[in-house]
Amino acid sequence: MKSTTISELAKELGVSVSTVSRALNGKSVVKEDTRQMVLEAAEKYCYVPNEIARSLKKSSTKTMAVVLPDISETFFGTIVKEIDRVVSGQGYMLILADTHENADNEKKYLDMLYTRRVDALVLATVDCSGSTVRRFMESGAPVVFIDNVPDLQELDAVTIDNRQASRMAVECLAAHGHRRIAVIAGSEKETTGVDRLAGYEEAMAERNIPVDRKLVAYGNYKWESGYLQMKRLLALRKENPFSAVYAISEKMTYGAMRAIAESGLRVPEDISVVGFDIHQVGMEPRQKITSVRQPEVEIGRRVGELLLRRLADLGEKEDQAGHRRLLLDPFLEEGETVGVF
Amino acid sequence: MKSTTISELAKELGVSVSTVSRALNGKSVVKEDTRQMVLEAAEKYCYVPNEIARSLKKSSTKTMAVVLPDISETFFGTIVKEIDRVVSGQGYMLILADTHENADNEKKYLDMLYTRRVDALVLATVDCSGSTVRRFMESGAPVVFIDNVPDLQELDAVTIDNRQASRMAVECLAAHGHRRIAVIAGSEKETTGVDRLAGYEEAMAERNIPVDRKLVAYGNYKWESGYLQMKRLLALRKENPFSAVYAISEKMTYGAMRAIAESGLRVPEDISVVGFDIHQVGMEPRQKITSVRQPEVEIGRRVGELLLRRLADLGEKEDQAGHRRLLLDPFLEEGETVGVF
DNA sequence: ATACAAATTACAAACGTTTGCAAAGGAGAA
DNA sequence: TTCTCCTTTGCAAACGTTTGTAATTTGTAT
Asked: Which of A36, A339, B20, B237 is the most buried (most CB within 10 A)?
């Protein structure tokens, strides 16, 4: 079931391969009659261009890669979906690589992608040192970071303003009278987690509320850690009282709420909760959770557009405009988990 | 920043390209000294094989495609993640295409994938006629269907037994004394929805419970339709009473529960609920939802393994073993939304 | 030293395109 | 008719590999 090639068409029609190629691509001048003839023959013999051969010749694969820690998360799924929508409009396709949050896998995938000569890369790295991508970036292919951005200067990135996100959470709680606000933060290694905690501290400072270290718990973004850290905070509640808690990931928020429910306390009567990335706000079976949200679709769109522009600029031989770090606005989605204190 | 090629290495070392190629690939006989020399030079000059050229020559791209309606759904995300894990172990990468549940997009993507000569395809189609894939299948590339399987004979597929899934739901409810069981079903066009409804009917028949058509609502798998259909069912509850409801998708389950909550009824005291595909059973902030579940990870693994075997068999020139339709077992995950009637 | 087989290496074609350049074809003007 | 100029087409190289076959080197036995 091998498919037709240009040269077979050429032979069939008694013209040269270059003529067929030009007729098919439409870019170059070919007599209209010939073009029609070629097009009909292509139709008749079910000609399908071989993108591999074309890639080799043009050294452009019309392929981008997305490397991320966990595609099963709605957050990443939504971003990828939108990137795909945007770039597929220009004929690009997406190679997906799920690193399982593992730096070795990330490196392995980046190597595989490099040999495949993808035109561009979007990366939600687990290795903030940025060491794994260096070669890629040096090769000249556009790279855009999302979610977790290494602390290097020269790079493109699209994220939300994570400090701002936490400020909004604290602001919401403070506006309801809360001052003793616990936080379930993330690891100190990832820029995302660091920024979110910093935002919390800034917002507290702005309101002259001292940050009680006893109310700062460190989790790892997973359900279990939200659950366990909340249990811990609740156990010490006598000595370190608090009226609200802010968790910086979706799963930790769920875990924390479960811990609260199991302790017999009510939300928001006893404890107010602000979550992060709660994707089904308004769709929860019961209580809507107040949550800081990221505009995933916009993130995806901006990433796609940025990559397309970079690739176009490459073609134009313009020198790359300075690298840009897009900081999008998070937003607070009101639910039913914040009460007045 | 162009990277080194085999012929540059060859020139540098004063040997032929074929020798370098063979030394690098290790398959063929090369004097050990030469191999070392080549390997060192490759290292020194940062040689990276060009997979595109290799693909062209070997007419195998080491690439598979996954085409599905919505990657932002955890269900698909989890499957893709596992397929990726399995096949990347054998050097394959995954191209992802999100059709947005649109048949035209599906066709467009399949065309793009065909010109890219992907080695294999996994497809969660929205077009059960199977017409869009025909060419692909005729080309000889392995195709595996998931989720929604066309009613053709000659194809590979990995799904759960959807009838069995519904039987388990009904069985659970019946065991708790429920006989008037409403169902929020899906469209009549998709095999998945059809099978799930059929399973419901079978299970009812087995228990000599007549199926009341008034208790069968048709949704479209989305939150809103679960919500609206439940509202409708509740509005008619006086004339068509029921003590339980079974919804055949995750989002419809959430929507239905929201509608129940808004009507002031309690779950499970007033109405019992069995859902489908509830991914965070046990992680919900409050009430655990009893749900029929699909083993997504196993589905992904079986898909990956099946594709790898098919591709290996192709190489072996063995004639393809008959097509197989893997029917995996769904399972019931107990929550707190089913009470005795 | 010579011959022969085995081990190693080189040559060249092929995979299916694109594209610069040269060649051919045709039309109009001298 | 011949020359020029423009339009259309063909030739051939290139993209970076793999691989069958031929050529060379090496080792061993005579």
From this structure: B20
Q: What is the pLDDT of residues A78-93, one digit of tens each?
A: 999 999 999 999 999 9
Positions in chain B whose pLDDT score sits under 70: 1-2, 281-286, 315-321
Is the minimum distance from the CB of A29 to strand C below 7 Å? no
Residue recorded with tokens 């951005």: A149
Helix/strand/coil percent split, chain B, to 5:
45, 15, 40
- Can you give A62-126 as a three-state secondary structure string? CEEEEEECCCCCHHHHHHHHHHHHHHHCCCCEEEEEECCCCHHHHHHHHHHHHHCCCCEEEECCC
Cβ distance of A96 and B84 shorter than 8 Å: yes
What are the Cα distances from residue A96, in Å, to A69, A75, A121, B71? Answer: 11, 15, 10, 11
Chain B positions touching A84 (Cβ under 8 A) are 71, 96-98
A289:B287 CB<8 A: no
* The pLDDT value given to residue A62: 98
The total number of residues shown for chain B amounts to 341
**Cα distance between residue B144 and residue B128, in whole Å:** 14
Residue A284 touches partner B, C-beta closer than 8 Å = yes
* CB-strand contact B230/C, under 7 Å: no
* pLDDT per residue as tens digits for the range A229-238: 999 999 999 9
Q: Which letter does DSSP use for residue A187 in this model?
A: -
Residue of A116, A119, A250 to mutate, interface with B, max B Cβ within 10 Å = A116
Domains defined for chain B, CATH in brackets: 6-49 (1.10.260.40), 59-160+297-327 (3.40.50.2300), 162-294 (3.40.50.2300)
**Taking a C-beta distance cutoff of 8 angstroms, is the pair B101, B251 a contact?**
no
CB atoms A72 and B74 under 8 Å: yes
